[in-house]
UniProtKB/TrEMBL annotation, chains A, B, C, D, E, F, G, H:
SMART domains assigned: AIRC
The entry's keywords: Isomerase, Lyase, Purine biosynthesis
Pathways per UniProt: Purine metabolism; IMP biosynthesis via de novo pathway; 5-amino-1-(5-phospho-D-ribosyl)imidazole-4-carboxylate from 5-amino-1-(5-phospho-D-ribosyl)imidazole (N5-CAIR route): step 2/2
Name used for this protein in its record: N5-carboxyaminoimidazole ribonucleotide mutase
InterPro entries membership: PurE_ClassI (IPR033747), PurE_dom (IPR000031), PurE_prokaryotes (IPR024694)
Organism: Dokdonia ponticola
Residue ranges occupied by any PurE domain in the UniProt entry: 1-151
PANTHER family per record: PHOSPHORIBOSYLAMINOIMIDAZOLE CARBOXYLASE, PHOSPHORIBOSYLAMINOIMIDAZOLE CARBOXYLASE CATALYTIC SUBUNIT
Length: 159, 159, 159, 159, 159, 159, 159, 159
């Protein structure tokens, strides 16, 4: 099982790296690529049409501004697509990225996460694989336990 | 495989019905319930902690205003949770519903769809099951073909 | 010379008709089609790649919500693309349509007009053709004179 | 009488400290803890259900982003809950924190204060205790007099 | 014990009536008046300065647009003031009412509830009185139980 | 003739100084004071009720956040009141200041200028005095000529 | 003394009529005209350059959408200009009208009133004339007393 | 063929320079000037009325805040006008610039590009000239190929 991670530009990598890191932490294979909806539309088409035939199970797509990458890949692929709104340099406080990923028309969903929420995109991709796979689901359960322990430690440090 | 669909109030049913309908159309079993984060917190806890042990694979949660249901279920369950922001009666143009579902903190994702986008929530749930199941994925491919034919018919009607 | 007018759905036609009407009023040929970025991506590709080889000079594209049609056509075509943000049924007061058309990344402009501003899209298309064609420019000058006279008549009716 | 102060993460402490400080200044006992709605839901439940039986009279809850802590505690406790929207690192200018705390559904109020307004949350907690206690109310009256004198000094410095 | 309920205009009464009704339901005495910050500033001053000496324990103030009533009363009174942002006729989707009540400066809190959330203002007033009064707190507990039963009935109606 | 300039706090002085400076430049007398609507309500009342009897002709009031000073002075005084929305430290991008000054109810106008637009408040005060005084109006005409010459110089520097 | 009232289109008249009515009520002469910044720019120029030489003392300008009329008249005239943001048919909830009137650059103020606040524009115009004219100021004082009495009657009707 | 580039102030030059640069890169003649709608209205009028008679084919106008320059030039000229919303120093996150350029009334379009999107304004100007000129269109095609190669290089650098 494999998660495909794409982004519109190498400038999105600092944000998107957190998706790669958490999936590695959860021991899930990733494949990372740059695909620009607006500058390499042919590559976008090829990626969207063939990702599922190449063995990818879930796609994570990050983009900023008028972010068309997640929605266009969702249009082309039958796989679940997770969209990460990136607060890019010229973004209007992130609103443009969020709305152009979230507000997809009926028939073509994009599973949108928080602004710059690439870590959550990675966890969601794992949860999707874990929907029908108890081994991966157990890793999610263990990860949630890690988070809980950190908060409990933080609470102790207060006293 | 089964999709659990919950909502904060029966008043959300007209919106959420579209998730039920499309999943039925895609021949996927659903289980529907009312769970209010703010009025029945014990039921919320019970639902979140045991959904995956009861055979549910994906959860769709719809709520409006300060919509805490999707995020709280995501906090309690290892399953992927899809959040539907409902534009409820007193919502501020839907912004409150969207932001309180979308902007989850690191560690606890909610797969957010468009405002009142319950149909897309249903399709996304099917895509999640189809991530590792080619039979369901084929139904998605067929459904996308249906959508395409409708647009092509619409274009013809123009001439 | 010809203006190509496309929209994501027949439900956008009531808004987009104003572009068709004003171009007819200015005696400029139009070609109208339905092209959905999300439901007919292959048609979108074909349209974007070949519009200029088929004799189209300017493209007007209208879409609502997470409106990807104008930007994706602009990605595929060397022609100037005018985007009309349509306040569709589930749009969040039009903000989603506006931002996902306007906030294009560097390299791929979309000439965005006001929300539901299809009439202005038609006039802008005529002005684009008139940029290097004095006959069409004269029609614009005459049209602006018509507008002025209507306001002057309105002012007289006040007295 | 005692004010319980909770927050979702130790990273909220710099903001929330102002509530602790002003309550100390007003000579009111506080109890501070970290309770994360999303990472420690069991602790949240325990806190909400038992705060009033442990001798707490008012709860102040601070959280950022999709801030569910104040609303969920309000769902579980019969005590008045004051919510502090924290402008956390990934918050969209604070709008997410504000709306997910303020826009509670009918039946479950959260007394919301300004963005990062922890000082006012502390004063409001004191006013709540002073609603039926003239000793504490007198401290509020004295505090308001302090504020007035500072402004009058500021005005004098201008001349 | 008594809750003072004021509003800027009789046109706010349809919204504010819900505060009166729920307090009556919880068997708490109310006193209702019209006080306009902008049209009757002297009455505002008198009200704010003497409410606590007249036996009022909590104040609920509702206003729309540039809503100054809650904040000005909070400036004048040592009592806890609950602000209800009213979506008045010329309000900009309620944003003006919310922000001019919520964003009070340090030192002068207003306990803000949801847009048009007068019912929650009433419940919050009762919770404030119940902060130090177990009889009233028990009524809140009973009321929360009522809410829970309604949701459970709603859930049953689904099956 | 005299312009009264007030602000809620000495922290507003860096912004408000521009009103003082431009009025000095236009040779118009000013009187500057700190008046806090929320911390010195009695001073606010006294100021609003007596400014016109003390020889003040126009009032400029600057405030941030839930900015009640301009509107409350306008409620108390028959003089024209110019409001300057100040983008204070905890302001939500200035929206709170703008809306709580601009959206005054029918009967009590505040002449609102741009965010942090104290310079324009000063010019507007001069224009108000110049409405019926040709000497002051001539200074405005001369000032506008200064502005024009600066732009013309800027244009020359480009070549 | 005379107040010039202009608007971009006869469709703005239902909103702007309230300015005319209140000025008539205050016994102040008005002159009403239609001047479109975008359709009759020459008339705009003429109006702005000569209003003060024709005996007009204050200008009220109402416009919607990208509302340039108030600012452009302010650019051309030394008189105080009051801008009324009109929520026109295609306006985005009024935000476009407000921001394009309010956010004027340094040097060229527009005295902006609330959305559709033409009545307040009329009162403000009277206050401007009353800044240096005690007869008109007395009418303002009487008008404010009328407003107060109406609220007091409303309060009585409650009991 | 020539593109006229104007801006409201020399402070807009750092943003607008990107339009000059890309047009130079595409070998298209430009003419740059400072024209302030609010400070040099006569120059604005002269520019708008005569640009097309002086051999200019397309106008690019950049401005910030209440940005009236693009719309006023569009009102005066029959040429296509491209508007660049500049995020100026006192702009409210760019919303004022965007809305006062984009939301033009029927009859007078402005081709609006992204916030600070001067580079795209330059490309759009070239596309407009290329609408009826295959030589310029070929430069656009070559430029789009350059963009594509950069993304492909970026993708390679990832491996």
């Amino acid at each position: 099982m494999k998660v495909g991670i794409i982004m519109g530009s190498t400038s999105d990598l600092p944000v998107m790296q957190k998706a790669i890191d958490i999936l590695e932490h959860l021991d899930i294979t990733t494949e990372v690529d740059i695909v620009s909806a607006h500058r390499t539309p042919e590559k976008l088409f090829d990626y969207g049409q063939h990702a599922h035939t190449r063995g990818i199970n879930v796609i994570i797509a990050g983009a900023g501004g008028a972010a068309h990458l997640p929605g266009m890949v969702a249009s082309l692929s039958p796989l679940p697509v997770i969209g990460v709104p990136v607060k890019s340099r010229n973004s209007i406080d992130g609103w443009d990225s969020i709305l152009s990923i979230l507000q997809m028309p009926g028939g073509v969903p994009v599973a949108t996460v928080a602004l710059d929420g690439a870590q959550n995109a990675g966890i969601l991709a794992a949860q999707i694989l874990g929907a029908t796979n108890t081994d991966i689901r157990d890793r999610i359960i263990a990860y949630k336990e890690e988070l809980k322990q950190k908060v409990i430690q933080g609470a102790k440090s207060l006293q």
